[in-house]
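Q: I'm writing up a methods section and want to include an example of the input and output format. Could you take the sequence below and give the corresponding predicted structure tokens, formatted cleanly so I can copy it straight into the document?
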Amino acid sequence: MAYVRKKKIGNEEYYYYTASFKRGDKVLQKNLKYLGKGKPDDDMIDELGAEFSEKKVQKLIRSGLEFESFKVDKELLDEFESLKENFFKNVSSLSKVGKDQLMRRFKTGYTYHSCSIEGNTLSRAEVDLIINQNISIDGKMLLELEEVRGHKRAIDYMMSEVGDMGEDFIKRLHEQLMGGVIEFKEEDLEFVVGGYRCDMRFIEGADFVPPVPLEVVRQMKDLIRFYKKNKYLIHPVELACEFHLRFVLIHPFSDGNGRMARLLMNFILDRSGFPMIDISVVNRGDYIVALDSGKSENLTKFVYKQLRKYVDVLFKN
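A: Here is the clean output for your methods example:
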């Protein structure tokens, strides 16, 4: 929560726009902006509220924190920090056009890989034509075309969200992702868009069985509580990977759970000031092995390799 804080030094009064946040059992403060010696009026306070969205506040808070390891060695977390610094140092040297092209490239590749992991057969070039140029591909399944369109909508929606992680946001994100495929699910009478599943679903090739529908609501509430309790305690990459794994195990939706897990992982990374991750379909086998292990530390190690390769390819380091 952000508010105007007054600090008195001698006979002088100084005003700051400050965020309070909970870290473990402690309530801490982060000065977001110095406002001067004059007390801000209501109009200025409204402007500050618009300027400092929840997303921006979280980035600023996390940027000043040091994190202890949760399940991986501290050395690996230091490597993540070095990758982040290297990535954004290179990005900052790009022109506006270059930055826009890099983001478009990421969204195209991310959509291609995330949908391909789930069985979509469109090529990367075809995905580019569909989501960036609005061109349909003859001879391809309409379902596959709508899957990639929905994924691109979901990325844009995720990145534009100014609020924090919550069940309402997750359901709205699922609606963006899967809303266009509902017409192709006529035979799936229990298929739900933007709401939790109401029947049992099973995952081919997985050792675990998702919880019964009545358990989904409770487990999702527990997951959100875990996130909010630890968002300033656990390193953002470890938190993102832990959230991803727990979400997959809950399997809360009728369909689209893998894509949703990767979107929500990137939601956490993005608002923590980290590069978002694109898991290549080429590495699908290693990704599944990391998930099947049931240990988020294995997923964190896998994500590090993916991110390092991504940064190396982009900037030839």
